[in-house]
Amino acid sequence: xxxxxxxxxxxxxxxxxxxxxxxxxxxxxxxxxxxxxxxxxxxxxxxxxxxxxxxxxxxxxxxxxxxxxxxxxxxxxxxxxxxxxxxxxxxxxxxxxxxxxxxxxxxxxxxxxxxxxxxxxxxxxxxxxxxxxxxxxxxxxxxxxxxxxxxxxxxxxxxxxxxxxxxxxxxxxxxxxxxxxxxxxxxxxxxxxxxxxxxxxxxxxxxxxxxxxxxxxxxxxxxxxxxxxxxxxxxxxxxxxxxxxxxxxxxxxxxxxxxxxxxxxxxxxxxxxxxxxxxxxxxx
Amino acid sequence: xxxxxxxxxxxxxxxxxxxxxxxxxxxxxxxxxxxxxxxxxxxxxxxxxxxxxxxxxxxxxxxxxxxxxxxxxxxxxxxxxxxxxxxxxxxxxxxxxxxxxxxxxxxxxxxxxxxxxxxxxxxxxxxxxxxxxxxxxxxxxxxxxxxxxxxxxxxxxxxxxxxxxxxxxxxxxxxxxxxxxxxxxxxxxxxxxxxxxxxxxxxxxxxxxxxxxxxxxxxxxxxxxxxxxxxxxxxxxxxxxxxxxxxxxxxxxxxxxxxxxxxxxxxxxxxxxxxxxxxxxxxxxxxxxxxxxxxxxxxxxxxxxxxxxxxxxxxx
Lengths: 284, 316
Hints:
The structure holds two protein chains of two kinds. Chain A is an all-alpha fold. Chain A contains eleven helices and no strands. Chain A has helices spanning 2-6, 25-44, 75-81, 83-110, 113-127, 131-141, 146-173, 176-183, 188-224, 236-243, 252-283. In chain A, helix 6 (131-141) packs across helix 7 (146-173). By secondary structure, chain B is mainly α. Chains A and B meet through helix 5, helix 6, helix 9, helix 10 and helix 11 of A and helix 1, helix 6, helix 7, helix 11 and helix 12 of B.
């Protein structure tokens, strides 16, 4: 993803908005670092993230670098182990949303206008539900399951993808070259493969990036609310929830995961925004 | 009259949507009742005890039958009783919803004036300040609400000890009895709402400023506050209100999270407790209520936007 974003572009006019065109090195590095920490962290944990090793809310020292949490577990180990679930769940949720949104969006554009409008109407009804409500309701139906969180995150974010991609596919389908292709007898499948899909790849990429931002947001919140795989498993969101009540006793147990979540969501959010700017200008 | 007919049509649409969505909520929670029985009967209950509990909860009937009787009750204002503590769902909703609406009202009171000022300023001026505010809004919007809340707690409740960390409300009292406890929840929600509202208003203001109508006013020598208040705002308000109501869903979600961070006695806190306790009727009742509230806000927003739009047409 970063290679795409840092690719030099020479066709841009210098001017008022020029400073924004620098490759997002800082944000890219930040994203990469926090993702590496989240994905590789579990192997670097010095202690077991779930074992009670000392008294609760111990101050940071040489043995426990970030102190201990509400149950006397090592905060360093839990911070190192707590990001993987969030990142993987968010990625899986984005993949589900992307697949559903892409299929439904392109389908709604390819079928007759009436049927397409009906599909979008149904999708709008789903979009009327608050995303978090979908997550909470599904978690109540399927307790303690990470798959339910993935499904809920995908379901909650897919409606927006469907709309965006239908609009994008619609623009392509009503363009002159597609009319020419249909007129010379290309099949629908050929039109889909050679005209529609290549041309909506840009919007689809931007849309996926924006869905990833939403997915991270929702996944972290689901963790905070104690949904998904429960119990002692470390999770940055749940760590904030567990340790905020002891905020006056020790700050590191909830500040460390909170700041990592800030870093992760802000970096990914800014990258997605930058990507949207780039593609938006490229196609406009 | 046209507005009334329009409102009637939208009301009917919203009612149909509410029935559909309540069906979706019911299906997601009630079609798999396995855990509801274990939650009530206990894990080590015998098969006979479980069957008793199942019959007692009415779970031995088919899902369609249960949904029909649930809807019949809901129409009469009876959402059934929760599994935990056998509390009537309607009563819980009636006592908790006002607290949440209070939170929402205070947030609106903080957000609307600030967002209007920021939106007008950035939308009209553009340039560096505009970029700064836009980036700031983008950054804050990306951060989950509970993280913002935790950071505010770290600074204002633990660091400076200005406000209490939890919104404890005395038994039988209302949150208004302890105004200090309301500050942190309202502050968190306002931060989230402000980013959303400012971004939407900024776009509407920029659009309104680009209309020939405003251009003409500017050429006639109307400037500054007068231009903003008399010419831009009335034109930007309609689209902005409509766009803003579309984000209600996200704000309902934020409110649920914020109530949980601060143990605020609102409906979102009850919803999370009900989910944690697998209290299915409570989840269904509260979720449906939240959807109803949201649809009502959407409807209100549509009508407001239309009323504002109508005035704009006469104004020209």
